[in-house]
Amino acid sequence: MAGRNLKMLLVTLAALLAAGTALADPPGPASDGERLRPGLYPAAPVPEGFGVPAEPGHPPFDIDWSIGLKGTLTGSTDGSSFVTTLTPQFTAIHEGRRTDLTIEGQADLARPQDGRIEVPALRLGLSSTTALDRRTRLSGRAALELSRQLPGTPGLDPRIIEPPHILTGAIGAGIERRFGRFNLGVNGDLSRTLYGPTTRTDSGLTDNSDQNVWSGEARLRLGYQATPILEVFGEATLGRDWFDRPAPGLGLRTDATGRALRAGLAGKWNGILSASASIGVGQHDFDAPGIADITTRLYDVKVVFTPDPTLNLTAALSTGIEPTGADSAGTARVSHRAVAEIDYTVNSWLRLRASADWGHSTLEGSDETERRHGFGTGADYRLGKHTALAADYRYGHSDNSRSGVFDAHTVSLGITLRR
Questions:
Q1: Structural domain includes residue 198
Q2: Is residue 75 part of a domain?
Q3: pLDDT over 80 at 13, yes or no
Q4: CA dihedral in degrees (57, 60, 61, 62; nearest 10)?
Q5: What is the mean pLDDT of residues 229-241?
Q6: CA nearest 117: which of 89, 93, 150?
């Protein structure tokens, strides 16, 4: 019995000794008498069938694009015209953890009846929003646009043969912050507008460089959330216009400081109805003592009604003071505008649209006034996932104290290819 136990002990000792030798000098290229160092572990092999490929990377931008081709027939007081328009555009969206970035671009290429290729508009825009925290949001924007109306455009002064090119660049930034029930917003914008010459039947070539202007504006908005639905707010605006040259008819620069103060209500109810209304006063004070300052009441109303996802109704009324623009007399334009729109989705293939608008503007420092009204209707029909047809009819009427009455009927039919 003792001999058997001794024999088992000797076998066990031999097995432990063999195991210790194997651990001290493992077989293979790494054995070479090296011992395993602390913290260094051999990697276990992974069978080929169990290997997991790396997750595919996502592109930094989600890009969408479309190309539209449209034919437009216009019959107006000055005759009829036909224009073919090609409209390529793109949108690139980046959605980050805190910052969302959007880049947009569009070009309008037109071919009137005379066969020339015109570029009525080129646009490039950049916008971003950043959530600094749960209560603070920062926004930024920049845009560059080159535009030019086509000769014979409805509403354009019939005495204009070649409208001017207009180049506009703008940048802006803003910040919004919630303090309990209070909402505070501060925004600032700076823009530069350059006007090319105009060719007219009555005065030939008109230089519009006196309308080249720098414009800056700062806005402060403070709102109080009286109820979960209703907000009471006040808004103050301070603006400034710097012109390059004196106005030819006045011999004075129309540089001015604009001020506006508004108070109003805004509300949202259950995603069905949103509305805002404000009333205030606006002042446009010219630097030159020989130019009369402008003071006017300001109205701003907007209502959006969406009883279900297929129907959307919008109505808006606004008042503003702005520069006169190219080929215009006067010191500033005071305009009142109203618009109503309806959008109804019949089914996944058909969408119907209708709109109506009204406007009245006065050129201060001049006897020129203008009244406008019009309406339109249209439909969009999807031929497939990437193709849609659009048909529109538009009527416009204007009565200008200098150029007279103008009426225009416009019919257009187009097709759009989307990504």
A1: yes
A2: no
A3: no
A4: 20
A5: 96
A6: 150
